[in-house]
Amino acid sequence: MNPWEEGPAGRALAFFYDICRIPRGSGNEKAVADYVLAVAERLGLWAHRDEAGNVYVKKPGSPGKKDHPAILFQSHLDMVCEKDDNVDHDFLKDPIDFYVDGEWLKARGTSLGADDGTGVAFMLAILENNEVAMPPVECLFTVEEETGLIGAGRIETKHIDARRMVNLDCGPEGVFLASCAGGMTGTLQKPVRMEPVQGRTVKIKVDGLMGGHSGSRIHWGLGNAIKILTRALRALDAQIGIRLCGLEGGGKDNAIPRICGATVALADDGSRLDALLKELSDGLRAELIPEDQAGFTLTYEEAKAESMFSAEDSDAILDLLQLFPNGVMAQQKDNPVPVVTSINLANVSVKGGAFVAQYSIRSNIESLKEEVAAAVRTLAGRMDADIEEANGYPGWSFAPHSEIRKLCVEVYERFTGLKAAVEGVHAGLECGLIQQKIPDMDIVGTGSTATGAHSTKESMNLPSFERTYGFLLELLKTL
């Protein structure tokens, strides 16, 4: 029995409940797409799944509104799959274990998937709602948004008649988005030579950082576990001498790394290791913002390794990580989004005899995005490393005049009695790609309040969810 059938937003919450029970990490959206298609079939609505896996659903207008211009709602089916180290969760088969904490919905030790499960739930509830008179409604559910807006890049525009669109992948509530950053991802690889290990080997680990969305939170000053661990390893190398044996940390390219560990061989017996790590931990913690200080740890444990990097390659990898750009690269005080350009060093590993680093670049200005990408290429060239770039996507440029944005602001303020704001965001949205494919589409972005996207701290505000659904119904009445 679904516990969320009652209340003004009961059906929307019920759909969210169902969605949470369906594994839907990026690239694994078939089951949730099947669910959307089953809802459409139950409602007797036209639906189609394209070759990319995107799903389109169309609902005719209510009596008296069938000939009104259509409205398109859009959200993405996938979620970022993050979990704490001590949590046993298989994102390929396990449902999200969520719970209510006051006014907030949270998950136990994993990301919640409010990004963008809330948008999917709103759209399904709108498709099902026959109590509110509304114009023709079109819904576009895209796939693989979190790994480079891949589904949006392959939409079939012949299935879209509407020329006004509400993207439901935004927030917080009451903020209506009018622009977003473009971006790209990259992978750096550098072969490393291995030698038989010598000396005591330990694993040194940074853990407990907050992490989060590498676009919307990049300016918070959150700690990057990879960069912090690099500083610790550099300091230990200077004090006692170390050789890298292995390195692994970070996660998705659009999440700020929370955890990173390195197995190292010590040049001496390690008798000073405890004291050195305590001193380093205290110093590094003092630099962190309070949100990171609370959980930050720098620890070590005994570890086994059969081989270690050559002295030259161990130094080279530490040099590379120290020099790798990370964080905010450009700001403009008069820009709708203070952060213009950024880069996130997201993931490091050693695979097949090579050191591998993955990163993502975002910018509202295409030329600055290319400048940062060129800087990484230059660094790679100096370090005899290879670069592979992928998933480039355009930004969504600000339109001074937008009828749908203007109407959303008016309806929201009238319906809630709260003040609305128009902003941009330093994150990638599918709006830019959709605008590129349908240039005359009038677009606005909105959503309910949620925090901690792309992290295990992700939470969804239940009163905001209810108000936002009510606002969307009011918008449809007005249209």
TrEMBL record:
Family designation: Belongs to the peptidase M20C family.
Record-level Gene Ontology MF annotations: metal ion binding; metallodipeptidase activity
Reported cofactor(s): Zn(2+); Co(2+)
Family annotation (Pfam families): M20_dimer (PF07687), Peptidase_M20 (PF01546)
UniProt domain Peptidase M20 dimerisation: residue ranges: 207-288
E.C. numbers: 3.4.13.18
Taxonomic lineage from the root: Bacteria, Bacillati, Bacillota, Clostridia, Christensenellales
Enzyme class, UniProt record, top EC level: hydrolase
Protein name: Cytosol non-specific dipeptidase
GO BP term (any one): proteolysis
The reaction(s) this protein catalyses: Hydrolysis of dipeptides, preferentially hydrophobic dipeptides including prolyl amino acids
Record keywords, A-Z: Cobalt, Dipeptidase, Hydrolase, Metal-binding, Metalloprotease, Protease, Zinc
Source organism, top-level taxon: Bacteria
GO cellular component: cytosol
InterPro entries to which the protein is assigned, alphabetical: Peptidase_M20, Peptidase_M20_dimer, Peptidase_M20C
